[in-house]
Specification:
There is one protein chain. The protein has helices at about 40-45, 55-60, 70-80, 110-120, 150-165, 195-205, 210-220, 255-265, 290-295, 300-320, 370-375, and strands at about 5-10, 30-35, 50-55, 85-90, 125-130, 170-175, 225-230, 270-275, 325-330, 350, 365, 385-395, 405, 410-415, 420-425, 430-435, 445-450, 455, 460-465, 485, 490, 500-505, 510-520, 525-535, 540-550, 555, 570-575, 580-590, 600-605. By secondary structure, it is of the alpha/beta class. The strands form 6 sheets. It has an 8-stranded parallel barrel, surrounded by 4 helices. The protein is elongated, with a radius of gyration of 26 Å.
Length: about 600
């Protein structure tokens, strides 16, 4: 069988949900970590939209397949009642799930099964799932020295399990504990007093957060998370502090982590600050409690905590266009009875009770930071929204000089990398189109929702060649010129324009759409290009392109990548081996039974580009 050259250009940005309820990259999203679900009213008092709460696997599945959903149900009910967007961090494995000293140390199939069940219950209620917590620390691996490959394998298992149940959910790779000590030119950050803090962590088995992130990418994690979390704690320093002046133990450590993402070609993927904050002085009676001896130097005054939190949000808005949700740590840990007085977690809190053991007679009090946050301006006016993307030909090569029109705003042209952008947009719905002489015209991307303060990226176009040989390639007129078998239908869920084709599995069986054409013998590099979204629901589901003779004989059948997500992927197939021949191009969804698989198809083109 003749093998075709197939290239898949998979976008690394998260697709924009049509509901616009949960988006991957609001700039900025304001949120807080909370310990008590009853504190959600405080989130509202701050005019914040997001909150982070925790689900512990060990509590929800204390023995294999023995589930207790009480905690999850309480979290989901509280989120729905409050109207706030829930970021659910899932971590803490039960003892039975650890696999001794082997590699990987966790039963990842069991964790993926668990997360699939969680996502099914949380569909439409959970905005984002944070997978694990600070995986560069031994404590997160049952005392083992952490390895990035363990975490990468976890993401590879969990990501499709979540997306299969809730394609719109955002999967966030856990934030690292800041270790410091690297990320700067040699000699700059090594000779300061806090080097001992870094050395102690490394001696205890912790891994550099920068090395861990590099290792994640090297282990193939890139396509298995939508957002990379960061924990840019400020330690003892202001948010503007150059990290290279303080052993990289600073709020701006996030910039050094971001540089690794961009070096890996992941610059279109946002980061979220799932935790950040500054710790207060608990008094001398706590100096020798727990790990206070190692963090005593990090204390700030109440006024500094207030100033630094507000300035942290402002610095991120002014300097980090890639930063999305920022959830301060924490809102209320000093109001609850389950933490000891000297527990450091309590001293990041911006609220407190004099006696948390007796909440009825001890109302919540507010630290300076709470009042400062309540009064700070939030940088999310509609005039600060933006749209951006890239225009390419049907092989995925960038096109310069393409005119991009945003209806009601104006026009721009793509640069040498095919990139374009519109900024300072008011909230609303827009139509977006791209055209260039010598190329076919796509229908516009319609009704793009612009939400106050958001930067929407990855709004890409793939222009078809002028000599496009497929009829009704954009499906705007339904199934005209296409033959089909099984439940193929027109769908309003399109990449551009108003319509695409939706293939639904036959449970089990094949569903397909096809068109028969003659490829001229005198053209250069005939290329079949298309956008697709494939959501397999069972392990045997497949989606592929079949090249057949008009009589039905199969010539080649390259498989499409399993995506199991809500993102559109671009693919192309070289049809040069069939110059001068009449062939049938058939898109086939193979469903192995069980839950029905689906595949969307749009922007199909064939020409000599």
């Amino acid at each position: 069988m003749l093998l075709l050259a197939v290239l898949f250009l998979l976008p690394h940005t998260t697709a924009i949900a049509r509901t616009l309820q949960f988006t991957a990259n609001p700039h900025l999203g304001y949120g807080a970590n909370i310990s008590d679900l009853g504190s959600l009213s405080l989130v509202g008092d701050l005019n914040f939209d997001w909150f982070v709460h925790y689900l512990y696997w060990q509590n929800a599945e204390s023995s294999r397949n023995n589930y207790n959903w009480a905690d999850l149900n309480n979290i989901l009910n509280a989120a729905q009642t409050s109207g706030k967007k829930l970021i659910l961090r899932v971590s803490n494995a039960p003892n039975w799930a650890w696999l001794g000293s082997g590699n990987p140390p966790l039963d990842l199939d069991e964790f993926a099964q668990f997360m699939g069940l969680v996502a099914a219950r949380g569909q439409g209620k959970v905005a984002a799932y944070v997978i694990w917590n600070e995986p560069n620390l031994p404590a997160e691996w049952d005392g083992r020295d952490p390895q990035p490959s363990w975490f990468a394998n976890m993401l590879k298992k969990v990501y499709p399990a979540i997306k299969a149940q809730d394609p719109d959910a955002i999967v966030v790779a856990a934030g690292m504990a800041t270790i410091g000590g690297d990320g700067c030119p040699a000699g700059i950050a090594a000779n300061i007093s806090q080097a001992g803090f870094t050395n102690a962590l490394i001696s205890a088995g912790a891994m550099s957060d920068l090395d861990f992130i590099r290792g994640m990418y090297q282990s193939g994690a890139q396509d298995y998370f939508d957002v990379l979390a960061t924990h840019p704690y400020g330690f003892a320093y202001s948010p503007e502090t150059n990290p290279c002046s303080v052993n990289s133990l600073a709020f701006r450590r996030a910039e050094q982590q971001r540089a690794i993402m961009e070096a890996q070609g992941d610059e279109n993927k946002p980061m979220w600050a799932i935790e950040f904050g500054w710790i207060l002085d608990p008094g001398s009676s706590c100096q020798n409690y727990g790990d206070w001896p190692s963090r005593w130097w990090q204390r700030v005054t109440p006024q500094e905590q207030a100033d630094y939190l507000v300035r942290g949000y402002q610095y991120a808005f002014d300097n980090w266009p890639w930063m999305g949700v920022m959830a301060l740590f924490n809102l209320d840990f000093a109001t609850v009875y389950w933490y000891d007085y000297c527990q450091p977690l309590r001293w990041y809190s911006v609220t407190y009770r004099d006696n948390p053991q007796d909440p009825a007679n001890n109302p919540i009090k507010y630290r300076l930071a709470y009042n400062a946050l309540q009064n700070m301006p939030q940088n999310t006016p509609g005039s600060l929204a933006s749209l951006s993307g890239q225009v390419m030909d049907n092989r995925g090569d960038a096109l310069a000089g393409v005119q991009v029109d945003l209806v009601g705003v104006g026009s721009t042209q793509t640069d040498g990398l095919g990139a374009y952008g519109f900024s300072e947009l008011s909230a609303g719905a827009y139509d977006l189109s791209a055209q260039k002489s010598g190329f076919g015209t796509l229908p516009p991307r319609q009704d793009l929702g612009v939400v106050a303060g958001e930067n929407q990226t990855g709004l890409n176009f793939y222009l078809p060649p002028a000599d496009n040989m497929l009829a009704n390639w954009d499906f705007e007129d339904g199934l005209v010129a296409w033959k089909y078998k099984g439940p193929a239908q027109v769908s309003a869920d399109a990449h551009t324009g108003l319509q695409a084709i939706l293939l639904r599995g036959r449970n089990p069986g094949k569903t397909w759409v096809a068109q028969t054409i003659t490829i001229p013998g005198d053209i250069s590099s005939p290329t079949l290009s298309f956008l697709y979204r494939f959501n397999p629901r069972n392990s045997g589901d497949r989606f592929r392109v079949e090249i057949r003779k008009p009589g039905g004989e199969l010539l080649a059948a390259p498989w499409m990548k399993k995506d199991a997500s809500s993102e559109w992927a671009h693919a192309w197939v070289d049809l040069s081996p069939y110059l001068g021949r009449r062939i049938q191009v058939r898109f086939v969804l193979i469903d192995k039974g069980g839950q029905r698989a689906t595949a969307f198809l749009d922007e199909v083109s064939l020409g000599s580009n």
